[in-house]
Amino acid sequence: MSGQIEQADAVVEVSKLVKVFKDFWQRPKVRAVVGLDLEIRKGEIFGLLGPNGSGKTTIFNLINGYFPLNKGEIWFQGEKISGLKTHQICQRAKQHENFNRNAQ
Questions:
Q1: In which domain, by residue range, is 62 found?
Q2: Which of 21, 22, 60, 81 is the residue whose CA sits 20 to 30 A from 30?
Q3: Domain contains 31
Q4: Dihedral sign, CA of 2, 87, 54, 35?
């Protein structure tokens, strides 16, 4: 964790996130996310904006564990969740009120 804000204020913290999709022969094909750092603080309304294909859904799927990370760390409520299975991450999120995804 970066330690730039108090741990109690950080709901989600992402550090140096990288996701590269590979082709059939396992060669790097698409760099979907490269070096992403972000913090979502308690009480904050947070949105990802960008054009089609910019990696918004990929970022969400990395945070919820649906896609494995190539590099980086993800923290939720001060607990490292990168590497956990999707259902384990969702169980932790369910325990905290006001944490959900709203696609518009």
A1: 10-94
A2: 81
A3: yes
A4: positive
